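User: Continuing from earlier, I have the next pair ready.

Assistant: Great, send them over.

User: Here they are, in order.

Assistant: Folding the first of the pair now:
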Amino acid sequence: MAQYSQALAQRLSEEHFAHHENVTAQQLISFTPIKQVNLYMIRELLTLWNHEMANLRSPYFDFEHPEVKDALVQFMNVLSRKISIKRPHFEPLLLKAIQDTLRTVLEPVAVFEEKFMRLDDLSVAKLQESLKYQDIDRDVYRQFLDTLANGSFDRHQVIPRLNRFLAEHEAERMSVDELVGRFNALQPLQVEDLFPTVAAPTPTPAPAVSTHVVSTQPSFRPTLHAEPKLNERFTPEQRPTLNERFKQPVAVSMADRQQDQKIGSLKEAISINQRFSFINELFEGDNMAYHAVIKNLDEYGNPDLAKQYLVQEVGSKYNWSRKEEHVQKLTKLIERKFA
């Protein structure tokens, strides 16, 4: 899924930027024929904007004054019509939107939690308002939010209830086949590409023996695990703490081994795609917080102190207990810096 998303994002970007210097607001709205991809890009921009505006607030000014509020709203309206995104910033945005659109059908609960459950003042009304950025299965989600509106709202119960609701309304949701068909019209993709199978080895014929029968059963039989049901996929499980995770060796792939050389600066070593991923997955879209943490890490002279800073001050603040993959990538970069 990641490989397909990257390939499609790269091709669509190449086609657009061959004739344009940037992506404008009007172009963003209809950039791809798959509406959900466009909406997720807009949603991501809004999230980043809200974080940037939060960073502008200062204790020396009255941001609650009606004139200030009106001015900020007007500023936002003007700025939203002046969107201009260069390719280095746009392509990662598009890549993530493509991947999240595929995940909306494959991992609907996880995507809903990432997209809509991170509001500080979460409420049913806020969630209903956020559905304007949801095209796939919007009616199903609206039905679910209607069930929440009938009783007291508890944000800790939303995800378990959504998990059960989607399982009960599976027939009403967009199928994987339908979504893959839409993407296939843009760039070849088959359902089988998303669900690779493991083939059993071919048995070796036994030699002919006249005195007794020799079994031709293969000596190795792979165990094929069925895909877990939706409600089983999100059952609680024991996860290592951040302290335990940093003590564990980071799994190294062939690509990692090719990039084990020492780096001088985390800021310079982190690619655009990695930076975009870290900001959204580890720092909840807060661009300023990401840059502050990377700056602090670059100033450390000891890897243990750098990791301790991540665990005690940063990881605990943003609750990285379910972000193991991204935490390991950042840890690997720290290890390369102090190699």
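And the other member of the pair:
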Amino acid sequence: MTIRRIAATAVAAAVTTPAVLLSVSPVYADAKPVTAQTGQQRDGKTSVEDLRKAAAAAQQKYDEAVAAEKAAVNAVEAAMADDAPHSVAAAKARKEAAAAAAKATADKERDEAKAARAALPETATADEKAEADKKLAAAEAAATAAEARKTAADAEAAKAGKAADDIVVDAGRKLAAARKAVDIALAEKRAADEALADAEKRVCVYEGKLTTTLTGLPTEIVAGSTVDFTVRVTNGTAKTMDKVLPSVFFHGTDKSGTKTVDDLFGVQWSTAASPAWKHVAKDHFLGSVTPLKKGAHADIKVRLTVDAKAPAGNGTALVSGQYVNNDGTCGGNIALWHDFTTLPAGSKPATSGTVTPSKTTPGTSGTTPQGSTSSQAVGATTSSTSTTPSGSTGSLASTGSSSALPLAGAAGAAVVLGAGTVVLTRRRKAGASS
């Protein structure tokens, strides 16, 4: 496809649906889940990006809580250690209090001295009485001093013991608080993780193993004629897809590439299960396959009618496929373009060949259908509204998001073409012709 042809398609998308290019250019990039919007909310819900940030913040909070709990456990162990300063002080105080038990000895000696003084006979001499009184006074003084020492030692032991106990109790309280914080942080982490997982399930992803191919479309189509071809969608994944929506979008210009004639293309589809021809709706979907089992494929007959008023020029058919599952997961592949030439009414094609798909962009799986060759019918679920709109701005003007997916088939084309092509086109049109 020439630069002019690519640019013309991109211009049509940019002019008629600028929001598509601006919002979906990251879609399917590097096969990472993304949303069609990058703001804080989408459809009134928190964006996946913000949910990821919330989950990361919850994880960090949980990690910090676990670390704090570990530190609290270590603090309790340190508080209860025998070599902790407060434990050493308490042990010393207890030892001193135990040593103060000498009071009992002093009391005994005092009592014995008192008994000895009382036991002196009346015949005792004055010196004997004086000696007994002296011993009694000394014993009483010793007992009084021992009493004071014991009181002080007991008080110090109680004080040191209480201080040590307070440190251990405080460490225990901090450990209990840390464990409660871990429980709260874990609950918040689980809630954030679940919210993120639930949101990511509902974010559309690139799926290269869902392939859509187009066969039988002539390389030259005469205005005023009708051609039939086939679109095949293949589920090459290992899982059943609950609902698959193949799509085809036609874009055409005159030979100059500046005049869009999309409104002169009429598209219908039909299947073996629903043989009546139905006009493709504004979302460009060719009905739906419900379900498409792993390895299976489904064929859709497509009929293109080119209005007799169509000028000689160039055309492009873009074919893609999307899926949505009952659990909310969804995704799709990148559209492949197929070039053809439109001839004026009454002309005769110079060749009977059929189009071949363009090269895929990096990350796609190519154009060969994957999986087995078993076939599955397509359900007739698409509206029968005609795709031929009035005006000449191109059918993308009527392209809206499907109720099943955030992106319609034409959006896949925008992904392939890229916003950069739009810029290139504008520069070329503002400068020289190619």
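Worth noting for the second one:
The two ends are 13 Å apart (CA to CA). The mean pLDDT is 73.
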